[in-house]
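User: For a reading group we're discussing how well predicted structures match intuition. Take MSHA biogenesis protein MshI. Before you show the prediction, I'll give you the sequence so everyone sees exactly what went in.
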Amino acid sequence: MSLNMRLSKLFSKSNKQSQIGLCFRQHSIACCSVLDDGSINFNELAALDKNYSPALKSLSKDLSLSGQCHLVLSAQQSQIVQIDKPNIPNDELKEALKWQIKDLVSIEPNDMVLDYFDAPMTSGGIEKVHVVCASKAELSPYVEQLIDNGFSVKSISIEEFAFSSLVPQSDDAILLVCQQPNEEILLLIVKKNKLFFYRRLRGMANIASKSEEELSMSVVDALSLEIQRSTDYYERQLKQAPIRSIEVLIPMKNEAFLARKLAENAHVPVNIFTVPDAITHARDCSACFGASQLTHMEEL
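Assistant: Thanks. Here is the predicted 3D structure of MSHA biogenesis protein MshI, as C-alpha cells, for the group to look at:
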C-alpha cells in the first residue's frame, strides 16, 4: 500500500526529471527543487487568501522549473481518521472507505479522493486503517494548472509522510517533534521507515514567536505532556518496544533551548534532528525536501 495519496492516473506521468517538493501552507507554498545536476534550491511563494494559483504559475514563469511534482497538502486541505478495517477484498476497499468515513469528515463521498495505510495492531487485536482524504474539487484545478504548465504530478501526500521520509532507517522507534513555519506541530513515531503513529497538536502554531521565558512557563510542559501521552499509547496500547529517542525539528530561534527543556521532562535522549547536509541552511523547508524524496520510502 503506497504511502502517497494519488488523485488518479490522469494526474501522473512517467518522466525522469527534476524532483520538486511543494508544500501548501496557510499563506504560501514552500518549494524544494532537486535539479538534474544534483543542486537543491528552496523558494517560498506567497499565497493570499489561500489562492495558490499565482504561486504555482511562478514555478515555471519566474523560477523556470520543470519536472515531477510531489505535493504536500496542508492540515486545512486534508483530513485523516482511523477506523476498523472493513473485511472486504482490497480492490474494493477504497470505494468502501468513502462511505465508512463519511460521517467522520467534512468532505462528501462523491468529492473525496483518498488513500489509506494500515495501522499497527492494537492490544485488542482489531485490524485498523488510517484513511487520508481530500476534496477533489479543491485539488483538481491546481493539479490541472501544473500539468498545463508542463509539470508531472507524481504524488499527493500530507506533512506526516513528508517529515517521515527524512527519518533514517532504524530498527528503533524515533519520536519526531516537527513543524513547518506557522503550521501545526506534529508528533510522529517512525520505525523501519514506517509511520506507526501521528498526532497533530492544536494551538502551538506560533511557537516560534515565544521567548525562552514563555516557553518555560507553559509551552514546554504542555508539549511534554502530549509527548508522554503519545509514547504511552504507542508502547502500552500498540504493545511496541519503548521509544529510544526524541528528535526535534522545529525551525525557530530557540529550537536548541526547547530541546533542552524537553529533555528535562523526558526519560530518553532529546536531540536536535539532523537534517541532510544539503538542507542544513533551510530547516524551515525540510518538509518540501522530504516530499521530493517520498518515492524512496518503503511501502507500508
